[in-house]
Write a structure and sequence with these properties.
Layout lengths: L2 H24 L6 H7 L18 H12 L3 H21 L2 H13 L4 E4 L15 E5 L2 E12 L6 E7 L5 E7 L5 E4 L11 E12 L3 E2 L5 H37 L1 E2 L2 E2 L4 H33 L4 H33 L9 H9 L9 H13 L8
Parallel strand pairs: 1-4
Antiparallel strand pairs: 2-3, 3-7, 4-5, 5-8, 6-7, 9-10
This protein binds flavin-adenine dinucleotide.
Length: about 375
Amino acid sequence: MDKHVIEDVDGFCKELRPIEDLCYLERRYNDQLVPLARKYRLLGMHIPKELGGRGADEYTYARSLVRIGMEGSGIRSFFSAHSSLAQSTLLRYGNDKQYEDYLKPSVRGEKVLAFALTEPDAGSNPLDMRATARLDGDCYILNGTKYLITNATIADAIIVFAKTDNNRISAFIIDMDKSVEREELTAKMGTPTTDTGMFELSDYRVARENLIGKEGEGWDIAKEALMNGRLSVAAGCVGSIRDCLAEVIRYAKERVQYGKPIAKHQLIQEHIATMRVNLSASTTMLTRAVALKERWERDRDNKNLKKIADRAIAEAKLFCSSAAYDASDRAVQIFGGRGWSYLYRVGRHFVDNRVCRIYEGTDEILKLKIASSILGKEFRAYS
Ligand SMILES: Cc1cc2nc3c(=O)[nH]c(=O)nc-3n(C[C@H](O)[C@H](O)[C@H](O)COP(=O)(O)OP(=O)(O)OC[C@H]3O[C@@H](n4cnc5c(N)ncnc54)[C@H](O)[C@@H]3O)c2cc1C
């Protein structure tokens, strides 16, 4: 565990608090987040030191995301998109020029990244995507709309997935220049601490060298990125449960009703005990998933280990996101009327945590994935 990274994450989170307050009160993303993350050198925590990053191992990175998750799933979403999804993909599949043009600047905080798989008509099943990439000399011409994308309107460059020849998916890194029409999606229920948007590419020309990996390899690249993304959601959710628990312990001891602190009422204790059990279970599942992922990273040709790690990550994401939603619901209940407000942290967690059961694989899709991984592909409930 790299204690310097953990300390910097903690410093960042503490300094972030007034900015968080603004986001919830104004109900929109605040652009001070990135400069603050840059100040604490957190924009490439898991990227090797040779490339300018902090070189954090899987455990340090997960622990950092747990701490960031204590500040809410919105802030953690920023890191999921920029680091877990986009930077990890570039690190694994990017070429030397992509390292120079995108990965290193993103680590320095000069370029914010995003990862765009989802479209209006292709969510749970990205294979239905309509975005296309047609090779034309030294360029690909991209057309399509990407929807519900974290960091979409603040990103300088985005990893975009589109169908090339033979209906196969390919991945590209593209600059967000003026030709790209972008729109912020502001009518969200929660996560005002992060930017969510959509964009449209019409006859966008991108150099051939911006293809990530090989043509047609995009779906495998995306699935691997989603392992990283799901792990980061699970870690953030553990942080959220931890913060909700800390808040309710403090509040339940202070708040007096019927002549005694509400912490002495047995039904309040039932909520607290359940939250604690779910925190323990979530932490254990996260740790197991991180350990398996770390083992597979050291033995990447081991397909069986990859399958086991992939399943453990899906299990952790499924469990931790539901546990976090439940914990924030119980925390709101313990806070009573005050909980139903953005002025209190538990109310913020409650609205933010709901989306954790939707993105990076919905509850339903993850259950199907876990079941088919046990039953065998021939029993897969989706094609
Ligand atoms: C705030 C936010 C940020 C996001 N950030 C990103 C991002 O950065 N990049 C990105 O690419 N995407 C992002 N997404 C998109 C997200 O990944 C999708 O919303 C998610 O995959 C679900 O797709 P959908 O919303 O189209 O729902 P749909 O796929 O339409 O699903 C609707 C419902 O049907 C269920 N369903 C679908 N198929 C099946 C099936 N076979 N069996 C059983 N049930 C099924 C689903 O589980 C769900 O309950 C983000 C979404 C949100 C809300």
